[in-house]
Amino acid sequence: MTLDDILEEMKKAQNICILAHENPDGDAIGSSLGLYDILSKMGKNVEVLMKNVPETYTFLPGVHNIKEEPTIEKFDLAIVVDCPDLKRVNSGLIQYFETAKVKVEFDHHMNNSMFADYNIVNHVSPACCQILVTSFDYLEVELSKEAMTCFLTGIITDTGGFKNSGIGEETFEIAGRALNQGINLPSIYKASLLTITKSRFEAQKLAMDRMEFLAEGRISFTYITKEDIKNLNLKDGDHEGIVEIGRNIQNVEVSIFLREEEKGYKISLRSNESVNVAEVCMLFGGGGHIRAAGANTTMPLEEAKHALVRAIEKRLK
Ligand code: 5GP
Ligand code: MN
Questions:
Q1: What atom of ligand 1 comes closest to residue 278's alpha carbon?
Q2: pLDDT one-digit tens code per residue, 182-241
Q3: Please, which residues bridge with residue 106 across strands?
Q4: Looking at the CA of 157, which ligand is closest?
Q5: Which of 233, 126, 224, 114 is nearest to 170 (CA)?
Q6: CA of 272 to the centre of ligand 1 (A)
Q7: I want to staple 260 with a disulfide (CB 3.0 to 4.6 A). Which of 56, 57, 226, 268 is the partner?
Q8: What is the pLDDT of residues 110-150, one digit of tens each?
Q9: Beta strand pairing status for 102-107 and 77-81?
Q10: What are φ and ψ of residue 138, in 5° steps?
Q11: Backbone angles phi, psi at 231, to 5 degrees
């Protein structure tokens, strides 16, 4: 059984690195730091390599151990979390995965390419953190309060506060268990999903002001530019939540949010009931989940908007 083999590899390894996707979210950071806690308590030398960690997650135990660059060159074991393929792994850090002796991944995305030596993938799981909890439960590895705090954070953020598709009995069992361990779930919920910085609020205000409705109100569209990011002094992760605003409006099936980056735009899509947005994003070289997906494009804003609207309209029921 693969999970048992992974535990053996963890026991054999001394130097371990943990990697996740670019613009890391609560699930990527929670998965990485939960694993960090487990492996460092096993006596391993563990490095979580990650750039652009949003300020929102500075409450997580172990967050100060995150490094932008490793202190060693070559790892015995590399673990990638919350990434469907190697393209999603932070490009400046990918070499530490490629040169590691043993490669492991834990993921929950639809179009996962099974890129590691050991792949623990469950695309119906609502969060990578949930896969990690069930995996370590199976292995009978005890999860400390710190590890559970990290994993619960990823579950809360990736499920949008226990409401997105994929949640089930298991999700609530983990939440109940965390409460029994003395973890302050309401405070994590508030810190990771509700509390926003003033500049994040300004970004939401601007995006709302610009929001357009297309296809008879079934599609919402908004964007922010590089100039907005500079003017509002937006930090990493400050755009999070904007795409949800459109999705929550009555009659909207798909919400489109474009964020200008160094080169081109980052596409974020969310849907409510019928459109598979992962499929739409795959047309643009991206992917994700049925109800939440993303991609990158080098098309100019208007062109990207029209291409997305066309692809979504075809799929509206
Ligand atoms: P978000 O809109 O929050 O950036 O991303 C929503 C979901 O789509 C996340 O699960 C994320 O991992 C996935 N996703 C976002 N961007 C990309 C991308 O460029 N490629 C792939 N394969 N998945 C993405
Ligand atoms: Mn995730």
A1: 8
A2: 999 999 999 999 999 999 999 999 999 999 999 999 999 999 999 999 999 999 889 999
A3: 81, 120
A4: 2
A5: 126
A6: 16
A7: 226
A8: 889 999 999 999 999 999 999 999 999 999 999 999 999 99
A9: parallel
A10: -60, -40
A11: -60, -40
82 CA distance to ligand 1 centroid (A)? 10
Residue 115 near residue 85, CB atoms below 8 Å: yes
Q: Which atom of ligand 1 is nearest to the CA of 293?
A: 8
- Please tell me whether residue 212 adopts helix, strand or coil conformation: strand
Cα–Cα distance, 214 to 255 (Å, whole number) = 10
CA-nearest residue for atom 8, ligand 1, is: 293
* CA–CA separation, 264 and 268 (whole Å): 13
Whether pLDDT at 102 is above 90: yes
Closest atom, ligand 1, to C-alpha of 21: 12
Task: For residue 132, give the nearest of 115, 108, 116 by alpha carbon.
Answer: 108
Of how many residues is the chain composed?
317
> What tokens were used for 159?
């499920």
Ligand 1: residue of 23, 25, 279 to mutate (most ligand atoms within 8 A of CB) is 25
Ligand 1 site residues, Cβ closer than 6 angstroms: 21, 84, 88, 243, 268, 286-289, 292-296
Q: How far is the CA of 137 from the centre of ligand 2 (A)?
A: 19
